[in-house]
């Protein structure tokens, strides 16, 4: 996520320079083609690129709207994960009490909170598609060993939480009311996990973005033709400028459709996960708290 | 669901070649008609197709927006089915315990999870309108025999789950709190089933899509007339190009209004159902796990 | 609800022929007025109808969007009624058991399900404003007699369900947990009834649709003037064509704002209610099941 | 709320006549200024008002959309109040039973329902900012006396309901399950009260509506200049007509942003409250039922 | 939040004067550059700024829509905080009763309500980034001392409420049903806190607003060029006017994306918090009630 208000123009050009160059070449080719072969023979009326431009601006606008909605929905899901993680830790700290077996409760509380952190790191790794073993530091050696045989690790971790919760109830460490409340939190984590995966795995309808790209190219050619008729070589620059507006908006919108990617437009999962980690370790009363994630170049957080 | 970012232009032409040819013919007819009869007599001002084009771009944009919302709503419903299926299996595995009758719980757990898989396959078959007997492999022979007399099979399967749940409660295999929680999952499955059927059975207002098609044809004729006035035979190509933008966007949008169809734009029910199947069988500790659905041509999943 | 993809153009003309004729007359009057009095004196610049057309397309688009949302909300409410009706029957069949009074439970179950069907038919009749006595066939003679003294019949039927539920609890036919679950279903029916009535009774802001109509007429006159300047008598046809696009979209959108009307654009309450009736009677194990509603002319269902 | 489909044009002119006159004067001034000083010197290209008009149509469209959403949200809140009021009365009638003190339950039921009606009338009065003492007819003399010392009367009435509910529980007139259900209804009333107040007290961002007004005036001047160039004095009429489209749409949209005002566009709180009153008194079995609110001039209800 | 309907034009100019001046200078430079070097050589067709203007109006419209949604979501969250705070106080006053330890309940009630006020003031301070110690007046000296060692103060205050609630349950001051209800309120406060922080910390996608700004500058230059061709020096004024419409709408929209900032467009957190404070202190029966927040200059509240 970008955290600066004014981004350098170079960043935008860095994202679009390839398409910019191809567009300049295309505009030049259209200009020369028009100059050599078409001039004096046919004239494209201005209405053609006008109608095209209006329609394309529309379709890009709608695409961007839907892309933004996906991105904001992803952000909301992880906002809910933050809230529910705090509620989980608060419930673990406030409601778990010494049970029938007389065992100390501090290790139980630590295990339930640590395993939740492992769940978060495993989920983040699955969504980002990287760093897949970092979460084991919050598991016991046994658990870390055992979990290697599973692929869908974050799901198994939730199942273990569920199993422990049932044992706490049997042991009278929590009563029925607390059980319902904590069990519903596990269901929420399961739902939020599933919702994240839904956004991750559902490709934004390819035809939408692909057709828009095709239309923009058609528009580039049309506008280059029309401006060639009156502007001479300047038409190359002007056509590129108009196309740049469409292309950069389209690319910009599409950068939001995959909000869990590890790029500058994505949801800052590293930062969010770390903040939850800090909050939960503080609630456990731990000393050794990791530092918050710092922005890259003071420009964005991951 | 398409999973590639760049689709072949042939795919788009494959979807639109019929209408493309009819449009080219129409544009040609308009051109010749204009050339023979209209030229020098009347002139259509450019404003006519401009206003038409703007208005039609708008109406297509709104249609696409609503089509996308239907598609995304369908995807959310099946995302919720994924989450709730996992919660169902987790509840079955964690909460069902030996009851008063002293019977083993593993077969009970297997039956409840297997029957849920049968429910999913029956629901998928009903939504896709095909493959209607595949789900019986997750039923006992008795059940498979018995269910033949019903038409609304997925509804009956839910009713059987409800009946078993009541027996588990009577048998003390689950207590009242767990009963409420698992019963509410059955209600959720019932709701998600109903919501899928609502989208499946509610035709997107026909007048919307039909009128838009009529308007596009009016626009084709108007733009062909206007471009004929200045561009000669090239007007045929240019008019077709403009119409292509409208037609392909409209067709593309309409491909999303029936998200449960068994086509490349639909929600990948095969893949989602199989993934749930894999997750649930793993949670049961089964050995014989089916493979995930692989994309067709590396291009889309069904 | 229309169920065909391609509707006959005659249907659209049937909905708009009156306004079409008035528009043709208006365009003709403008043409002759322009020809006789205005020509050579003043010229309306093309920008006037262009700006008008863009603005009106916008306002129509927004109106249609809101009309569609109303329609889809109504459809969702009745989708929820389908789901909750099934849940009601499933609960009645699975949870009601022999109580302290030793009476048979089958008649009780039948009464609770029958009365729910009466509720649905009474609600449908109130929303459609017709067929108000059909629901009494699912009531006992006593109830049918007694209900005549009430105006808001569907509300009274819910109150009777509530009263019976309380008696079942007192009689130990259902326990506290089941009572809560079934009582919350009654609350849902009450909410869905209220939401249907809200849509039924809330007039879509009249000024919105009225102003749009006024604007379209202003546009017709303006475009007829402008095209008269260059096109001669053809301007009558062209102006009508442009206006037709606006008028038919507007009329089409407005046909969705009252989704409970008994017309081809409305939610098919007859079909939905009958489907629930079939499902619920099957769950009761009845023999004499009514047939589903068949489409009218194979074209739409009511 | 207007209840007629076709409103008299006079109503629209009544809402806009002041601005209409100012606009006609402005257009005339622009025309004369252009005629005397500008003509032959400079020419404003048509593109200027075209771009302005498109942009302004957009911004008005978005404003209207948000205004409509506010209005519909307000209507939904009061629809929920209707539903929950009926549920409250149904719960009071079905669940309250003779308690430990052996007192009759009819007066208790009447008090709980009457006080709810007082709450509704007090809330309506606060939202409408008028008629603040009508609600006391549903309070006992003691209560009516006591409540004078409070400002936020509707909040206090809810607190009294809460206090009574607690006494009913202590008295065994309702059991724990019923208490939870009825208490959650009180929370809903509190939420709906708060949501109504949120809409009432939150001013729609002034800059939005103000800027749009400023833009419309800029547009009026620009279009008057441009049409003056070709149309002579007719430009006054045409400019006013175009501006009328923008101004009346803007005024119309803004009439919805304050849905609780006591005007023709507002939510008909009088009608809704009276309907609840009728329903609830009927459920109590009262004889003396007030008549429904009748429309004013057959044109709108308040 | 602005509370006046007509804001002074000076306020708008105050927000935009810097950019206005830069724009006037830019337009002048373009005019002179065009006059000296470009005139008679090349002509930019009007279609270029037309298409640009339409596209930019679109993108600004979408941005504003999303900004408004953020602002309204923030307002809804704080509306929910108002409702839940009242429910909290109502629950504390109605449900807490003398427990096993025989201690007086008034101090307990006061502590629970006071600490909630401290929570609100701490949350407000964190969102506004100011006035961070005002909340301690609602804490005991011990608590105020103790809380200094924490950074995330509002989270700790919720944890203390949770701890006290558990003690009340153990002490039989509240029973299990009341515990669930009050505990769920604490979870709601935690969620609302998290949702506020999500909006506060999530930067609105910088590329959106930045690109829009870049596009507006491109548009300014283009429109200045085009108007220079026909209007002479007046093009400077006209270009600035057109740009002003875009720039002020864009700036206005962006003023809503950070709704918790301490500026005139923000949510009036001071006013809302104070109103809750007044309501809650009145419910406690206190004498010394602070006055409501008064608007600044009668123009806006903070």
TrEMBL record, chains A, B, C, D, E:
Record-annotated membrane-spanning stretches: 12-34, 40-62, 208-226, 232-251
GO molecular-function term, one example from the UniProt record: chloride channel activity
Coiled-coil region(s): none
Major place of residence: membrane
Keyword Transport found: yes
Keywords tagged on the record: Cell membrane, Ion transport, Membrane, Transmembrane, Transmembrane helix, Transport
Localization annotation: Cell membrane
Top-rank lineage group of the source organism: Bacteria
GO cellular component terms given for this protein: plasma membrane
Membrane-topology descriptor: Multi-pass membrane protein
Family membership: Belongs to the anion channel-forming bestrophin (TC 1.A.46) family.
Protein name (Swiss-Prot/TrEMBL): Bestrophin
Species whose genome carries this gene: Panacibacter microcysteis
